[in-house]
């Protein structure tokens, strides 16, 4: 009797243009998928030939053609899906970050308002999939929302947010509270991989920032921090790091606000780094207030950055992230939408379009900008979460990778090299709202008459 696996066909997705990201672009390319993984990627003719001669030659082959661009599923490297129902906050204008925060708190702290975090989070995950997003870094404050990614069988990490702890309270009960929270999330059985998110240096004192990385690392979990987002987190350092040149390093500070109130103008990135809280298992969100020394620290520590340009405008961070500098200097960068409480949509391609314009406005003249942005919204997002290698790798199309794809309705012109580059530029500048189908682990999770 044939096994259930023998009844599964090999599905070949062919397209006018396939962008594997980890390999050259493929005009008239194809990707063969068996079960949940890619088995071949190449030209359509080569893929069909490889299937007819290889170990899967006895399997039934089903082809689905897309007259547009096929690329890895998009990765949203920073969002809060549980705030999907708070879109009214993100649709207003504010005079300062504090004014936006106050408007957010009016809804979040009102116990009289019904806030169905689970329903809102699940709806947000559904929206992500419709936009072609197959993985996300989702920060969860309320445990009932922790199953959002799993609800759509998405990949990524659900980060449990830690905020509002002072040193004395944290030392008395914080670590035990966190371990109980992680255990509860794990027992739910609905969360994707779990991580920890120390919120920000203005909402946590020093003790949590000292302990949380150690706790996460001892449990094999990754971390995600809001860092360099607000004007209060800026510094004035221009020189390279020296352990002896700045007296503030030799003192114990109860918190970052305490340090700043003493008259020492040190960035939040440098403060958190001094606590030993950074490393290659961490990525930060926003990174707006990051001068040359801050960016060097992030590169040296292996810390990636999720850029959220539209959210920064709504929350009034008073300036844009140094996109061009991040690109020129080689920082690991990715793209996030943030939540609907601070962004007009959950479509990563909306932020990608804005990042293109910002990079050009800031003086980035490289002809590779479209290529860099495509990497940021796919492989870059996977890399900041450690999902770019190994058996769970995403953000790329190659043999053995999980079969996550987006199908964008972008006209493809391959008549010349210039026309090809124009096609990629159209993708990053006009790609918003063009996704027509989404495949997650070989399963068609969304199909708007694409095939």
TrEMBL record:
Keywords: Hydrolase. It comes from the Bacteria. Signal peptide: none annotated. Residues 69-424 form the Amidohydrolase-related domain. One of its GO terms (molecular function) is hydrolase activity, acting on carbon-nitrogen (but not peptide) bonds. Pfam families: Amidohydro_1 (PF01979). InterPro entries: Amidohydro-rel (IPR006680), Metal-dep_hydrolase_composite (IPR011059), Metal_Hydrolase (IPR032466), MTA/SAH_deaminase (IPR050287). This is Amidohydrolase. It comes from Alloscardovia macacae.
